[in-house]
Design a protein that fits this description.
The protein has 201 residues and is mainly α. Helices cover 78% and strands 0% of the residues. The chain has helices at 5-22, 28-45, 49-71, 85-109, 115-133, 139-156, 160-195. Helix 1 (5-22) packs antiparallel against helix 2, helix 5 (115-133) packs antiparallel against helix 6 (139-156) and helix 6 runs antiparallel to helix 7 (160-195). It starts with a helix and ends in a 6-residue tail after the last helix.
Length: 201
């Protein structure tokens, strides 16, 4: 399938947004809103309906995420932190169950291509997005899952440039995961230093 202007524009804005997210920049949100809007149109043309819903979700949550990063910590900038390990014990099984349920609906009631893989991209992207809105480091692990599924899925639909973009996302997720871990350690050390009482005169 020939790469058209819509796919190029969607990829350019989304690549910029993901790169900025990896650098922990608040500008990831407005660039992502533009990219997701363009991708919604592209995926509708490719009959990837779960992905259309996902892009609409991204647009809506990006507006809230933008505010959350800037003012979400009692009016201050939200710090980078780890999620509680116990959360993974229910989050991953819940994601798998939701993937199966939504994939079944797509299979039965739409003409969606590869409904269960398409559903997995949607469900685990939703989880990753919520974690990113909270500036949780583990969001990058979920993006790795999404990107691993998305690359062959989009390539099979002739969305070559988009498949290549998600391959870049995979590499970016690994690098960003490591970078955010360093940021979290630095911010935690800075907070601990601020809480340390000054020595008596």
């Amino acid at each position: 399938m020939q790469i058209d202007g819509l796919e190029i524009a969607a990829n350019v804005f989304t690549a910029g947004a993901i790169f900025l997210a990896g650098r922990n920049s608040v500008h990831t949100w407005w660039t992502g809103i533009i990219g997701c809007t363009l991708f919604a149109l592209l995926f509708y043309q490719a009959s990837l309906f779960a992905d259309v819903v996902l892009q609409v979700f991204f647009v809506c949550t990006s507006m809230f995420g933008w505010w959350k990063w800037v003012r979400g910590a009692s009016g201050a900038v939200l710090p980078v932190t780890h999620m509680r390990p116990a959360s993974l014990l229910w989050m991953v099984p819940a994601g798998l169950a939701a993937t199966a349920a939504y994939g079944t609906l797509l299979y039965l009631y739409t003409r969606a291509f590869a409904p269960f893989f398409d559903s997995a991209v949607l469900v685990f992207s939703v989880i990753a997005q919520f974690l990113m809105m909270q500036r949780r480091i583990e969001n990058w692990g979920f993006w790795l899952i999404v990107n691993t599924i998305a690359v062959p899925l989009y390539a099979s639909r002739g969305l070559t440039m988009t498949a290549c973009l998600y391959a870049f996302f995979w590499i970016n997720a690994v690098a960003s995961w490591l970078w955010w871990k360093k940021l979290a350690a630095h911010e935690a050390a800075a907070r601990a230093a601020d809480m340390t009482p000054a020595p008596a005169a």
